[in-house]
Amino acid sequence: MSMLAAAPTFTAPTIAYGKLSPLLIVFGAALIGVLVEAFVPRTRRYLAQAVLTLGGLLVALVAVILVATHLTSHDSGAAHGSIEAMGAIAVDGPSLFIWGTLLIFSIISVMLFAERDLEGGVTAFAGQAANLPGTEAEREASARGIEHTEVFPLVLFAIGGMMLFPAANDLLTMFVALEVLSLPLYLLCGLARRRRLISQEAAMKYFLLGAFSSAFFLYGVALIYGFAGSVQLADIDAAVSSRVGASGLLLTGMGMLAVGLLFKVGAAPFHAWTPDVYQGAPTSVTAFMAACTKLAAFGALLRVFYVALGSARWDWEPMMWIIAALTMLIGSVVAITQTDVKRMLAYSSIAHAGFLMTGFVGVHQGIVVAGREITSLQAVLFYLVVYGFATIGAFAVVTVVRDAGGETTHLSRWAGLGREAPVVAGVFAFFLLAFAGIPLTSGFAGKWAVFTSAWSGGAWPLVVLAVLMSVVAAFFYIRVIVLMFFSDPVGDGPIVAVPSILTTATITIGAAMTLILGVAPQPVLDLARQAGQFIR
Amino acid sequence: MTGSETSLPWLSILIVIPLIGAGVLSIMPRHSDLPKQVAFAISLVTLGVSIVMAIDYQIGRSGYQFVEEHSWISSFGANYAIGLDGLGLSLVLLTTILTPIVILAGWNDADGRDWGVNSFFAWMLALEGLAIGVFSATDVFLFYVLFEATLIPIYFLIGGFGGPRRSYAAAKFLLYNLFGGLLMLASVVGLYVVSSKSASGPSYLLSDLVHASMSQPTGRWLFLGFFIAFAIKAPMWPVHTWLPEAASEGTSGTSVLLISVLDKIGTFGLMRFAIGIFPEASRWAAPVVITLAVISILYGALLAVGQNDIRRLIAYTSVSHFGFIVLGIFAFTSQAQAGAALYMFNHGISTAALFLVSGFLISRRGSKMITDYGGVEKVAPVLAGMFLLSGLSVLSLPGLSPFVSEFLVLIGTFTISITAAVIASLGIVLAALYILLMYQRTMTGPVRESTKNIPDLGTREIVALAPLIALILVLGFFPKPALDMVTPTVNSLLQQIGVSDPSPTVALQEGSSK
Lengths: 536, 514
Known about the structure:
heterodimer; A: mainly alpha; three-stranded antiparallel sheet; 22 helices; globular; B: 2 strands; 72% helix; disordered N terminus
């Protein structure tokens, strides 16, 4: 094709299709999914979509592993990989680590998407999303058992965007990735089968605030371009390193970029959307969003601030210190007053974003030190893995605790769950203990890793604050455990529905990884270490 | 097993047996006698193994024995490193002796509870395994992990099987201890940063950390994190308030494990980790710590005098006695430290005895209040006799084992601070007051209507108490084996702090020949 288009002055871009294959496979599967939606008969769509989505993700995961084993090394092994697609995408160690993790999280979340046993043979997504809530048309669609399967291509697009986001090597590609990952998520949030009004409200809020933060990001890109004359991260780095004196353009642009990224991360004061969206979105979407968006967004945050703005770290570090402290404080303290499981987990995710920020703030030290010492990038990546498995597992448990009206998320309805279903309550308690960072769970290893790297980077006041906030956070996790095990059920008490193998497998994988990463985290730590540094 | 030692990894086996037992119990029928029998058998096997190890242990040799060391999480510098010195061995023995006794004494405590008999005894065995691990860890990271992990079994033991305010007491216990634990985590993280600057890279091995060089302020700050955690655990005034609650609400077996075994982690940790790693900082902090210890002694004793709830009373006596232990540790003389180390063991058995007897009494009458009793010695003489004997041991009557240790602590303290020793001695006077008053109000006087049907102790209960009474008597008259066991630990610790006794150690001989 490029032969036909070749004009004398035009040089065809060189694209290393092999190295970009994980991305291409996910986007390809998404496009095929759209075609399936158009051409496959309705009765067979569910199976076709589920198989296509899971299959596509699995193939992409294999591709990630193949690419990861053939990376070229730089700086005597400190970094691996290369910059592909004419400088747009960095296929390096951290990118591949995030891709692999993202794909695994996606696979177990998509298994929740495909769950049909809990809603009596249909998925948890609206049958006819276009019907107004409470209308005759909706009741009819519900009575006929209609289900739509657009969620599968939508989630594939979102995953594709999430993979591109942390791998983008220029700010424009990053912005495109941000939109590709966000738009399907806005839609997915509004597709709940039950409690549709709150779900649509969540989608609306998420969209408005998300669009607002995207605008900030884009404006930041423009200002940075004005400062550096380029959107390439390496060029920005060169411009930042050689600057003389302070530059209003750089500082403002940096702040704007940070707003856009911290919004996705869910850090205070840009966290306000998190509880509403986590509560309103279908729980499987919340699980996906909580684990994968955070992972992708932290990857992008790390890349922008280490690669492009690393030389200006004295300018952004004070800001990030404040944000890390504020995020931990708000996440932990406000979580205490929550009465809804999903909102509580949302605030807990904010608190965890704060702990991750603590690791992020100490990062420069990680680049300098060599030898056996744990680096900040390694610590943050490890924490994201830990957090993702526990979060998806916890939300998966939320999907099976139900009453007549569907999932029952009010905390008072969880009282006495330990007597109704000791195993389910025990697993949930285990996830909560992991969030609280009790030893022998993955949460402890993760906390330990980020705290250590932060302290090594000189951020010990933040570590002390983080430790204190961990106690506050432990208070509300333990409150839920007390409620489940030591309180009497109210009324009929909750019912634990028996899910299909899909949800069971997700919960099992989440719990098993939480245990394994707590007892023997070394292999994953090694993997994060081998990922090395970002390439420039 | 790829140990550097050719023999079997005895210590690991000792840790694993109760843990496997707990796993087996958790899948047993919820309401039957089978879990009790299995739990008792497993705890006896554990006791047997620990006794075999104690016989094999070379008393008088300094350093650690039964050492095992494997790399665990190399990125963190963490190792699976365990070993026993005299102090560790004495506390491991305390744990393995008390667990079967507590299981036997609490045979019916979990009957009819929602949570099932099996989980009650499973948590107990889990606690035993973890506690043995804590006392043998020679790697700070491993210690920290096990230290925190012990909170979970106790939490469920109190919260699942305790009295009416159990869930409040359990939560208070957990949060207090998590707070201390997380402060210690900050210090543990700081230690990593210190040790990673050394040539050999990050390491949490105690043997490496002892030689770690750190600046004076760093050492003091890190010491503080450890100290606060251990002070909460021990518990010292003013961070003791979780203990009376937890001890009062748990079953008596739970409270025995809590006070006699788990709280020892605090004083044990002070000796092995806080002082062992930060000798300079502990010398710096000693005056303040001694003051706090003296306050604990008096405060605990005074509050014990005023208590009407038997369990809370015993809990406050423990606050007072932990004050003695901490005082002994921070006096930095060989008599005082040997006394403190010995006191950990003696306090464990004497308090366990008192707790169990009073538990038998409380379960008969269904009330914890002293004012609900009277004249019990006439209807249940054996019970009253055991109560008196264990009470006397708690108040350190000469001839009973705690006396030796308390006496050593006091003479060791006299040589460095007469004021502290004199004030601390008041604690002994108060001890006589609270124990004898409690005995007088509950056991003597006319038989009350409500107490006249109290049956005397049964065979099971006597069998459970007998080993404790025997130990109290034997170690009271012949404390030498126990003293010899802890002396090398104390000597090497004092060497590390860099202090020597103000006067020659004549007192040690006097104390041990009593």
